[in-house]
Design a protein that fits this description.
- The structure holds two protein chains of two kinds.
- Chain A has a single domain (about 25-295), classed as TIM Barrel.
- Helix content of chain A is about 40%, strand content about 10%.
- Chain A has twelve helices and eight strands.
- By secondary structure, chain B is mainly alpha-helical.
- Classes of the chains: A alpha/beta, B mainly alpha.
- Chain A: GO terms for molecular function: hydrolase activity, acting on ester bonds.
- Chain A: Keywords: Hydrolase.
- Chain A: This is Hydrolase TatD.
Chain lengths: ~325, ~280
């Protein structure tokens, strides 16, 4: 979400033309993107840029929900309609299910949501629990964060942890300490929205470090290049967290392109934009990874048949350059 | 042999020993206390079958599966349908339980649930659910209700049936996979189809050849004019043969210029069953 709209554009660095040829033939995962808030244009752009798999954590929808049924329908859409919508564009859609930190503060409702979660976490397309954690760092947030860690431990699934914007470093460390206190294996926990200030603490403790490339409020990708140069590619992954705010669904492929341009080795780029996320979220428990290669190599104009190979050419393309709509 | 037994036999032929053992145990647990065990077994089945098995396709001769028409189902779907067939209870408890399965279902579970409609007890309970499935926007779920499913043809009243047929055209389903398509054809459907034909024609878009076949007994003059034009322009031989069937039904109402050009084509007309068979392929 954007809170710094009045930033002077001249402070944002020199623009580099969008040149994706350098990443042609590479495949990407965006391990944090809120597709329910995005358009079909975004799906087509993601597919064209090589993003073959997305992970959509359950989150706050921009305003508070007031009843249980809207939570249920939202979770249901993450394993239903949105998943199908993505498949129409050749993209495999997975999600994590959880009660986000903001809405954890509505305790009577949060109690009911907690009872709902076990119905969803084992469903097809659900990789784990997320995004959960701290926002204002209240007692209620802590209570439901802990309860959901227990749920993840019981189900033996990964956890995707949102870290707060405000008082971030303290919030991040606290999130990890609580996870360790509950006996979670850091290998099963992705600490998200990291910055230069938090990355060392996260990697030192053996957790996965997610970085959100999000204009104005989170990481820029030039800073991301420096982080990978400093810390290496191990246990680091980038995501867009694209949602209903000014954000960029192509953040992962763009960052990959920038990293290559800035001299980071292709294998390292591949780790932070693809394989680390696949490993952290244990995607191979859910699909045959070879089928992702099939998607990459499939002729996008071929007609869609069967379930295993998704092709991005199934949905018609609009001629955006024409004022004619027919 | 009961349907569920035939299904089980076909299913188990595809599975590994380990998978069979698991399903046998599961069946026993469901029989003992379905309220306690079924949801877990049903929902996590995808994680119990190997990648290759869960997505491999299976078809069964219609005679073996009675009310179920098993055509290119995934093994996962068939296994879930089989599990659903093991459920039995008094009406109210049964309905409550199945409703909850629908309510919390993921995409693949929904496909299995709708495919299983013909197998469920108390068919009258599932009519509204079937209509809901036709309204579903997920292509594969719609397909599970609309194609190769005997429930809709045997249970839906005319209005809902007609909506389903129209929806099938609008969403690009394989029309000939609809069970009872010709048996349940009716004048109200033909009227709606004619309206659809006019709209497609005004938009200068393709007109599905099966629309003509279904409405051929009820084509007004304007529709016949469109049919003549589309027939003359049609390139695909199978589509053309279907259009010729609709023209033949209305032979006496066709325009003179059209007949002058095309009269001889009616001489070699094939029986409709053959034309449909060729089109299907």
């Amino acid at each position: 979400m954007c809170t710094e709209m009045n930033r002077d554009l001249s402070t944002m660095g020199k623009p580099i033309p969008l040149e994706l040829d350098v990443i042609k033939g590479m495949k990407f995962v965006d391990p944090h993107i809120h597709m329910v808030s995005r358009t079909t244009d975004d799906y087509q752009a993601l597919f064209d840029a090589g993003v073959l798999l997305v992970i959509e954590p359950a989150f706050w929808v921009g305003q508070p929900r007031t009843g249980l049924d809207t939570f249920k329908d939202y979770y249901s859409s993450l394993i239903g309609w949105e998943r199908f919508r993505a498949s129409q564009f050749g993209i495999r859609h997975f999600c994590t299910i959880g009660l986000n930190s903001r809405e954890a503060n509505n305790e009577p409702l949060a109690e009911q949501v907690m009872e709902l979660l076990p119905h969803f976490i084992y469903k097809e397309g659900v990789l784990g629990i997320g995004e959960i954690g701290f926002d204002d760092q209240t007692a209620a947030e802590e209570k439901y964060y802990r309860a959901q860690l227990e749920l993840a431990k019981e189900a033996n699934v990964p956890v995707q942890v949102h870290t707060p914007h405000r008082d971030k470093t303290r919030g991040t460390i606290r999130s990890m300490e609580i996870a360790l206190e509950h006996g979670l294996d850091p290998q099963m926990v992705i600490i998200d929205h990291n910055s230069e200030e938090t990355v060392k603490d996260v990697l030192d403790r053996g957790f996965w470090a997610g970085f959100t490339i999000y204009p104005f409020t989170k990481m820029g990708n030039e800073r991301m290049v420096d982080i990978v140069k400093t810390y290496g590619p191990e246990k680091i992954m980038v995501n867009s967290a694209a949602d209903w705010g000014i954000s960029d669904p192509l953040a992962v492929p763009k960052t990959a392109a920038l990293m290559l341009q800035k001299g980071i080795a292709r294998e390292s780029v591949e780790m932070v934009t693809y394989s680390n996320a696949i490993e952290a979220f244990a995607v191979s428990n859910h699909i045959d990874l070879a089928s992702l290669n099939d998607t990459l190599q499939a002729d996008p104009s071929a007609k869609f048949e069967g379930n295993t190979i998704l092709r991005g050419g199934q949905q018609p393309r609009l001629n955006k350059g024409s004022i004619i709509i027919s | 042999m009961k349907t569920t037994e035939k299904v089980m036999e076909a299913l188990f032929q595809r599975l590994s020993m380990e998978e069979i053992t698991y399903l046998n145990q599961s069946a026993q647990q469901i029989e003992e206390d379905y309220k306690k065990h079924f949801v877990r077994i049903f929902s996590t089945l995808n994680r119990r079958l190997s990648f290759a098995n869960r997505e491999s396709l299976i078809s069964l001769p219609a005679t073996d599966s009675a009310k179920l028409l098993i055509v290119n189902w995934t093994v996962l779907k068939l296994a879930r349908v089989w599990l659903l067939g093991l459920l039995h209870d008094e009406k109210e408890a049964y309905q409550q339980f199945i409703d909850k399965l629908f309510e919390y279902a993921d995409m693949q579970e929904l496909e299995a649930l709708y495919a299983a409609l013909p197998l469920l007890d108390y068919p009258e309970l599932w009519v509204e659910r079937c209509k809901e499935g036709i309204r579903n926007n997920i292509g594969t779920v719609q397909q599970a209700v609309i194609e190769h499913n005997t429930f809709s043809s045997s249970q839906l009243e005319e209005e809902a049936w007609n909506q389903m047929i129209l929806k099938a055209f609008f969403t690009g389903k394989n029309i000939l996979n609809i069970h009872g398509l010709f048996e349940r054809n009716n004048p109200a459907l033909a009227a709606a189809i004619v309206d659809y034909i006019y709209e497609r024609d005004s938009a200068k878009r393709d007109i599905h050849p099966m629309l003509w076949v279904l409405a051929k007994e009820a084509l007004p003059e304007r529709a016949l004019g469109i049919l003549e034009e589309r027939y003359a322009a049609e390139q695909d031989p199978h589509n053309k043969s279907l259009l010729l069937q609709a023209l033949a039904t209305n032979k006496n109402q066709l325009s003179q210029p059209f007949m002058q050009l095309h009269a001889s084509e009616f001489d070699q007309i094939s029986p409709i069953a053959e034309v449909l068979e060729a089109y299907k392929k």
